[in-house]
Every structure is written in structure tokens, then in C-alpha cells.
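re: ur question from earlier - yeah i can do the single chain one, its not a big deal. heres the input i used so u can compare w yours
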Amino acid sequence: MPSSDAKPRGLRIVGGSHRGRRLVAPPGELVRPTSDRAREALFNILSHGNFAASGLPFAGRPVLDAFAGTGALGLEALSRGASAAAFIESERDALTALRRNIAALDEADRVHIVAGDATRPPRAALASAVAFLDPPYHSGLAASALRALAIAGWLTPDALVVTEVAAREELPLPTGFIIMDERVYGAARLVFLRRERAPTGDQR
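and the output i got, formated as C-alpha cells:
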């Protein structure tokens, strides 16, 4: 039986106040953290061009990291100026690594952890302007999680959602989301979605 002790897997924060700090991940292949290269590219995209036309989309605002695993995406956002981060994760070993990473960066005061399923989340503790979804590849969970998170109040009406799927994986979108951009990095595809504002009186 493999050990449940989290071990370093070459992960690090790539920018901001925690730049260069190492993160741990659980052993085995259950958790597939977004690579440093893809994460750096993702935050470069969010920091420049159309997404940053009015400033960093997450600066001073809460973010959500669903299917959080090690928490690398949410912690990267905190390092770069997000005001708070919520993490949703269901796997025990991943939660252990996530909590260790939060403690190592001394970020416990700015985070909220939900030990549960992102496709069946509780009512939101906070609404996030930017959300990161990194479900297992080819699981088909992204669409149901998007719908559930919106209904439960985890996303602001015009939230930007970055979803990582396999490079050739289909991503059916629930009503209320539109694709803004897509980028492929090796085996990963980052899909940038915008939540469309509902008609007045129908916001969730």
C-alpha cells in the first residue's frame, strides 16, 4: 500500500510574493498538478492583453480552485494579488497536501477549504471573480461542475473560469458560459470561459 505522505514533485510558485516556493503533491498518479510551464503561461495570459484590460482580473478579489489537488492554481493567484481563495477537493491525500502547502506559505487566514465534490458543492462561502477547474482528464466532470458551482453561488455573474482538460478532450458547455480563448500546452488544453450575465432579476 503506498504511503500517504505528500512528497515534493518539482512544483513551485512561479510568480508574485511566494515566487520560487516549493509545493508538495501526494504520491502516485491520482493528482495531476498543472505543470509549472502551463501555470506560468496561464497567469501571463491573465496578466496581459484583453483579460487584463481593466487590471488583473483577480487582483484584490477572491478566486476559486475546484478539483484543487495541491492547490497550486489558487495559491499562485494568492501569490499574485488575489484577496482570498476557496479550494474544493474530495481526495484525502490531496487534501493533506493542500493543507501542507497552505501552511507552508502561511496563507491559512485567506483560504476556505471545502472537503467535497465540485459537482455537488455546498452553498458558496464566497463568490469568485476568477475560477480554476482542473478535473481528471476525460472524466466529463467539467460541465456538471460549472453548472453546479454557478447555481451554488461560487461564481460572480461575469466570472472568468479557466478549465484544464486534455488537449483533444471535448468540453460541452452548460448554458450561461462562452469560450473566450483556448491554448494547448503539451497534453493540456486551457479553455478560458466567461460566465454570461443573466437577465436582470435572474442572477444566481
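Residues 105 and 179 are 33 Å apart (CA to CA). not sure if urs matches, ping me
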